[in-house]
Batch of 3 targets.
Target 1
Amino acid sequence: MDAAPFDAIARYYDLDLAGFDEDFPLYEELSQRSGGPVLELGCGTGRVAAALAAAGHDVMGVDISPAMLERARRRDARAEFVEADIAALSLGRTYPLVIAPLGTLLHIEPEQRREAFAAAKRHLAPEGRFVCDLPIETEWAPGAQPLVCQWTRIDPESGREVSKLVGMEADVTFLTQRVTYMFDELGEAGAVHRTTSVFELSYFTVSEIMLLLDAAGMRCEGVYGGYELGEPGPESERLIVVAAPRD
């Protein structure tokens, strides 16, 4: 993973996800069951980690982006945060719950997937659970797609208007998307400051997830179609995978 694309947009990350908390009940319930502490892979600016810490759980958040982590530490001093590449993570301890929320694993390069799943297993307690959340992409239009404005919002930090534009170029054969984010912030006298970030997302098939879990020494306990842990179906937008150590 490369920190640079995420450092560039850390300033706007919370604005982008403002109001999204649909996954909080799932991670809160799992944290209660496990008894904690919780290891979050790809914690970003601390959206999930801060919610769990506020609920009284001990949380360790890991991310590769220093700028994201700086905002996470300002967000909640109760959680602990460490800068590291997930694929090379070695904290020297295990956790009863390891989570990878909101598509974190899509940012792992295909050649590092085995290492990333092995790192998750390495940090999983013998009776622990590994939970990852992945989007289900159903519209794979090949080639570059038109740039679209996804939203326009007022940034509470600056009071300025910000628009998010998204461009996409998909490779259907390899299930990858080259994504361009542009955040346009309206300044004084109508001047626009643009922040651009370009990164790749690599999607998984369910079969590949099963193979990666097995190679890492984990067994799948369930594949679900949403945060309520219902059966996956044609209308499902998320894929929630729950795994446990095989040993």
Target 2
Amino acid sequence: MNLKKMIFINTIITFLLCFITHFLYTLLPNPIFSIFFPVNESIWEHMKMLFTTILIASAIEYFILKKFHISHDNFLITSFIKAIISIPIYLLMFLPIYYNFGEIMPVTFIVLFITILIVNIIGYFILRLNHIKYGESLAIIFITIVYTIMIILTYKTPRLEIFFDTEEEKYGINDYLIKK
């Protein structure tokens, strides 16, 4: 096992975990899960799921790297970078398709897989860099900031299309659109 093989293993693990994390809040609705997992079917909530799933998969990856004594550096900052850049990468591929053709599940899954593969390839190169000074500390700060923003956007959701759940006609966790 080497770092290159971990790219593909982590891609598969992350992709499969997305299917589990997608339904966690629905299965176990609680305030903690609302921070990390989708509370509705809006595009934004799925980006929250992607961010969290990449971090969970990174934790699994960390233990695999340790078990096989695979050399790496900058692990936490790499995990954060992978998670945060997955959002614009996914949206840049997904939104044009979504706005032109609507939701096409097989295409959505392909875009998801490609996004995860791209961020894992980027992560591979970051892991191979020399030690990034304060990288791990900065990652903890940035992850905390991102989850603080996620809490705010889940409970005080802006009335923007990306936050709108078209299935239940609501924004955020409890903000239903009033039908006239």
Target 3
Amino acid sequence: MARNKSLSKRDSYIWFDGRFMKSEAAHVNVLTHSLQYGTGIFEGIRSFSYNNRTSIFRLREHAERFINTAKICNMKFGLNRSQIEKAIIDTVRKNGSSEFYIRPFAFYNDSHIGLSVEGKKVSTIIAAVPFGAYFAGKEKGLRCGISSWRRINPAILPTEAKLSGNYANSLLASMEAKASGYDEAILLSQEGFVAEGAAENIFLVQNGKLVTPSKEADILMGITRDTVIKLAETMAITVEEREVHREELYTSDEAFFTGTAAGIAPITHIDGRKLGNGNAGAITSSLAANYAKAVHGELEMFKNWCTFV
């Protein structure tokens, strides 16, 4: 894999309301509504470099989810899917077509104090940040703990939306896990079923099949989660989407997280209990290998997942 191109603040660019500017020039007022109240919406997208070409993975699906989040939050930012996709492609090119974490972000760019968003300006930015391994140094496996914080549900906040305010829930769970010596948190739903990681979906391997929490656990329906399910189908691996009891985490043969940032990250210990032999299992490893091929456009049947820049 090609090494990340190192970009300094001086030569990195932000797409800001239709024009590029140096990252250090992209400023907002500290009283900006979305900073004060968590009303921004965002996406996380990855680009990958391989064999002297760069691919943006599942760009269309991410752009569609960004628009859907805006609809759920009734935010009107005036961009359609094609315009968002073009802006993302242009941002990657402007910054050197490399391995990036790409962050589209729309927010109420208004500094008046008060909850109302009526008449407030909406701005959109796109950043492309050089990015390596999300769980750096933990590639052999993560030690996770069940959080005392429960996953939010749609009666509280829209779990289908990538709304900034939602992620206070994730942050508190992750902070708690790390303070307790774990690498990441696993959250349960309000009903006590397994939901997801702090910023990842979760899969278990039980007797050769994949088990993952269903939508009813109030999870974010992750695009990497969907990728893994589709890859598993081509590998003749059965996938069950259902309610998952906490104790199933402890008795599973393997487990792993999925996410745009995390990719496929094996879990080897949960609440101090070793899963299987304490290493990334065979099914996790084979899915991770095919995922790596997919993001680089090496799987012919899924080549349409990649937008080459």
